[in-house]
Amino acid sequence: MLTFLLSRLLSTLTVIVGVITLVFLLIHIVPGDPIQVMLGETATLAAQDELRHQLGLDQPLLTQWWNAIWNLLHGNLGQSLHSKEPITDILAQRLPATIELAIAGLLVAIVIAFPFGSLAALRKDTAWDSGAMVFSLLGISIPHFWLGPLLILLFSLQLGWFPVSGHENVSSIVLPAITLGTALAAILARMVRATLLEVLNEDYIRTARAKGLRESTIIVHHALRNAALPIITILGLQLGALLGGAVITETVFAWPGIGQLTVEAIQNRDYPVVQACVLLISITYVIVNTFTDVVYAWLDPRVRYRD
Amino acid sequence: MAKNMTFPSNRLTLSWLLCIATLLSGCNPHDANMSSAQNQSVAVAKKPSHPNYLRIPFSGDVSTVDPAFAYELNQIEIVGQMFIALTSFDPNSYETLPELATNWQVSQDGTVYTFHLRKDAKWSSGETITAHDVVWAIKRNLAPETKSPNVVTLYIIKNGEAFNKGTLNQSTASSPSPPPHNKKKNEKQEKSASATQPQQPSAPSPSSQLGVRALDDYTVEFTLEHPAAYFPAIVSMWTYRPLPRKVIEQHGDQWTLPEYIQTSGPYTLKEWQKNYRLVLSKNPHYYRAEKVAISEVHYYIVPESTLGLAMYENNELDLIGGQVYLNLPQTDIPRISADPVLRQDLYVGPEFCTEWYGFNVQQPPFDKVLVRKAIAAAIDKQMLIDIVIKGAESPASTFTRPPVFGAVAPEEGIGILFNPTQAKAWLAEAGYPEGKDFPKMTLTFNFSEVRKEVAIAVKTMLKHYLNIDLELQPTDFDRYMAALGDHTTQIFRNGWCSDYPDANNWLYEVFHPTKGYNWIAWKNAEFAKQVELAQRVADPKERQRLYRRAEQILTQEEVAIVPLYFSNSQFLVKPWVKNWFNMAFGGQHIEDWALEN
């Protein structure tokens, strides 16, 4: 297990350095002069030079790269061009709201996916199965920017159950969480159905039934537990997608998180903030994936032996 | 929270608009058949559930609440609720009224104003507000280190401009002027000042040469550069408001945080969650605190007006609309007007703002007046209002928005009117027949949905009528302001709103070639002479005549700008908000409003 952990840690660090390098290079991939892109063509040369110096873009590329790594290691992401605040402070203000929303979205996905997926598997080739799969298809197909307003229309303006926007109490998070979690719920439901169907055909399930165990015990203790491994993998992978999806969901509901910050930063051409947001989402994605791998290996010893 | 509403197709329209809000802007013809008397109260049976605090949206985050740095409308709004001014305005007549100052006198030559302060005004800490707080605040805002974006409003004070530009009595190096933020620097300078003063008693420090001083704890005297009949109106501005010196010196640029701030107005800062919410609570030490009926005001940052409207409809906001409180989505105005419930909440009233496009007159081909005239005559402002704005705005051909003192009535016909035939002729005369060889020019504007739509419409009109191409350059506020200040624009958008109801605030402060913002980079001596004279003259009729001539030069002879439209605001106000009225140039009197239970 230790060897497995070390190898995973090493590969994670390599990926993180790769991500930092890619994000660092983004500014150099921008066609033309990135400073002009940030300031607009009408900016004076003095203003351009000042910003170039401020961002360290007047230094050799390798020095810039090393500075980027060094600053990151010291928690220094620079300063927002727009608000002049340290970017780490801005991220710290916004991150809790996004984490909150991502966790709520994940919960929504789990709460919807397991009953739907299980129902579809247990009632295979019935109307229940078809209904669950139609829901799944719809969930995957409906974009967040459409689902969000639809939920506002129904649950806020028509039924008056939840607020349109806000960040004050539990009811404020319900609609954003459903918006964010629905697509993941759909993916998970299909996954639960597929893995459960596979597991239900295994010999040990047949044995359990032959022993006269109750069907609910068989499903919960034997089938779902064994079906959980691939589902955990999907959950881990999709957490990154949740963070990405939060960009649109947060914009629709004016949720004060990283997603909305990213959109604002793009609108303001606040390049350092955009860079920091991309970096944060990417690194979170990498870390969550590593964590998923470790959990997977912990649950299934075959994984670490294969590695 | 069941809502007594049906589920008609208009809701679907809203949904559709919400869906595409970030992608597209709708463009439906609008029958501007709205009228609603401002300030009248409408009693409509509606769902009564609402909290006991006022909920208002802002379209963008509030980056500062320091009166020295307030520039954007939402910043000025917050400052207005928290810091008391020497004077205020009557909501109906816009006449200057006493506020912190109970009365004032002016010297015979019109250059010295003496304001007597009320003795019961206190800071939120309970300490008394004195004339020294007023003087200190003005000196702080004028100090070059402060870099106040509105410092030009203080230039009327004797030596104000020279002090701000560091050209006042430079031989006396020991400046005791209060630096804006840095406590250490402040202490150091105070020591330096006290150390040098005994040795050089005859050398007055620059700040002591400023035309503002406290005669005693409750009397402030202003000496002006020249007579200015409008000065009592000017002192209502946030740059003239007293500041809590001790707090600022102790906490530096952190002084506006809720845990440190001291305020003098009806409200104080309770909570400031950046990019989400700013909460003001009643200041118990405000001198009229017993009259303040609304205990808390919650300002929410709502970037999309469609989302704001949905929040209003779901009773999450008590008020929406106008320049400050998140413009109503124009595409929804027809629906609002037709909705039997919403239209009862709709109010239309004047807003002392003019939307205009300016030329950088130094930049070819806009250095030719004929080119500028051609462009001005090719813009159909009524069509902009009917098709793009879809609001209750009025077409403008002059700059100062009536009924501000000094504004020219539209019936006088000053300015360039829409005339595409004449526009073509002027362009041909300028050397660009049918737009041939006309270089592609850039139109710079600070981004908003409406501004973008207006810019697209203007671009289309210029292409259609003159065959000239415009490239649109939307930008954020900071860069937009920097581009205007650096004169790096070609054509630019601007909107000017009254800080006080006098044309001096419009013509002199914006377009004076050397003493105004002068974003158009012109050097018109005759215009400068008119607006300078208008400052000095006491006779209202003569002042009107001078401003009329200035408007003629600006908008008709030189056509340095193209006024587009005079703003009107549309608001939706819940029936439980009582005593609500809209101050046309900002500074809403929330302290006089009430929430009905």
Sheet having the most strands of chain B: 7 strands, mixed
Approximately how much helix is present in the residues of chain A? over 70%
Query: Helical residue percent of chain B?
Result: 25-40%
Terminal residue distance of chain A: 10 Å
Number of helices of chain A: 13
How many strand elements of chain A? 0
**CATH topological fold name of the largest domain in chain A:** MetI-like fold
Indicate the overall shape of chain B: globular
Beta-strand fraction estimate of chain B: 15-25%
SS strand fraction of chain A: under 5%
Average predicted local confidence, pLDDT of chain B = 85
* Count of DSSP-assigned helices of chain B: 18
Order of helices and strands of chain A: HHHHHHHHHHHHH
Low-confidence stretches of chain A: none
User: What is the residue-mean pLDDT of chain A, rounded to a whole number?
Assistant: 82
Which of globular, elongated, flat, extended, rod-shaped describes the shape of chain A? globular
Output the structural class of chain B.
alpha+beta
Of all chain pairs, the largest interface belongs to: A-B, 42 and 44 residues
Number of strands of chain B: 19
Rounded radius of gyration of chain B (Å): 25 Å
How would you describe this protein?
The complex is a heterodimer of chains A (about 300) and B (about 600). Chain A starts with a helix and ends with a helix. The mean pLDDT of chain A is about 80. Chain A is globular and about 80 Å long. In chain A, about 80% of the residues lie in helices and about 0% in strands. In chain A, helix 1 (about 1-30) packs antiparallel against helix 12 (about 270-300), helix 7 (about 145-160) crosses helix 8 and helix 7 (about 145-160) crosses helix 10 (about 215-255). Chain A has about 300 residues and is mostly helical. The longest helix of chain A is centred in the last third of the chain and has 39 residues, at about 215-255. Chain A has helices spanning about 1-30, 35-40, 45-55, 60-75, 85-120, 125-140, 145-160, 170-200, 205-210, 215-255, 260-265, 270-300, 300-305. Chain A has two domains: about 1-75, no CATH class; about 95-265, MetI-like fold. By secondary structure, chain B is α+β, with helices and mostly antiparallel strands. Chain B has helices at about 10-20, 75-80, 130-140, 160-165, 185-195, 230-235, 245-250, 305-315, 335-340, 340-345, 370-375, 380-390, 420-430, 450-465, 475-485, 505-510, 525-535, 540-555, and strands at about 55-60, 85-90, 95-100, 100-105, 110-115, 210-215, 220-225, 265-275, 275-280, 295-300, 320, 345-360, 395, 440-445, 470-475, 490-495, 560-575, 575-580, 595. In chain B, strands 11, 12, 13, 14, 15, 16 and 17 form a seven-stranded mixed β-sheet that branches. Chain B is globular. The two termini of chain B are about 15 Å apart. The chains are: A mainly alpha (about 300), B alpha+beta (about 600). Chains A and B meet through helix 7, helix 10 and helix 11 of A and helix 1, helix 8 and helix 15 of B.
